[in-house]
Amino acid sequence: MIHKLDFFGGKVGTEDYSRFRTRIIITLILFSIVPVLIIGTIIYKQFQTVYYDKLKETIRSVVMSRKNTIDLFLEERVAQLVTLAYSNSYAKMVDISYLEYLFSFIQRGTKYFVDIGVIDEYGNHVAYYGPYRLHNVNYREEEWFKKVLVQGTYVSDVFLGFRGIPHFIIAVLR
């Protein structure tokens, strides 16, 4: 074994140099890798937060755009029905052949309506043109009927109703 004198007069062996070298290497690794890991973790967390915020904002923007498009679409359909209701007499609209003519008239420009009906103030379906058997149906207890009597116009949520299939109603009071 080789012994050398250190600066303080003591003897230092090669084992001591190996341990000292190992400590220096571990210290260098800790002081170089640990800060990189800490900074990398912080940057990752910040990126993740910004990315998810941006993703949420993009989705929110798309949803709002679609919502506005649907709202505009429904407003146009309500306007069509208001025009029909106020430009035709009740006596004409309860005539099934005239109601069929009105339905085909509004279908020329847009094919969005499935059927059309006239309901009296008691909820009776007095005239109907469309593919379902809705003649003589009474809507007096239906929520949408009560709301249109109060609000004047009403667009329902999607529901099954008497048809038994998902649909929504646009109702106009005259």
Order of strands side by side in the largest beta sheet? 1-2
What is the number of beta strands? 6
Spatial extent as radius of gyration: 39 Å
Please outline the major beta sheet: 2 strands, antiparallel
N→C terminal distance = 112 Å
* Shape type: rod-shaped
Based on secondary structure, the structural category is mainly alpha
Low-confidence stretches: none
**What's the assembly state of these chains?**
single chain
Helicity level = 55-70%
Tell me the fraction of residues in β-strands, as a range.
5-15%
On the 0 to 100 scale, the average pLDDT is 89
**Helix-strand pattern:** EEHHHEEHEE
What report would you give on this structure?
With 174 residues, the protein is mainly α. The protein contains 4 helices and 6 strands, in the order E-E-H-H-H-E-E-H-E-E. The protein has a two-stranded antiparallel sheet with strand order 1-2. A two-stranded antiparallel sheet has the order 3-4. The chain has a two-stranded antiparallel sheet with strand order 5-6. The longest helix has 74 residues, at 14-87. The relative contact order is 0.07. The model has no long low-confidence stretch (mean pLDDT 89).
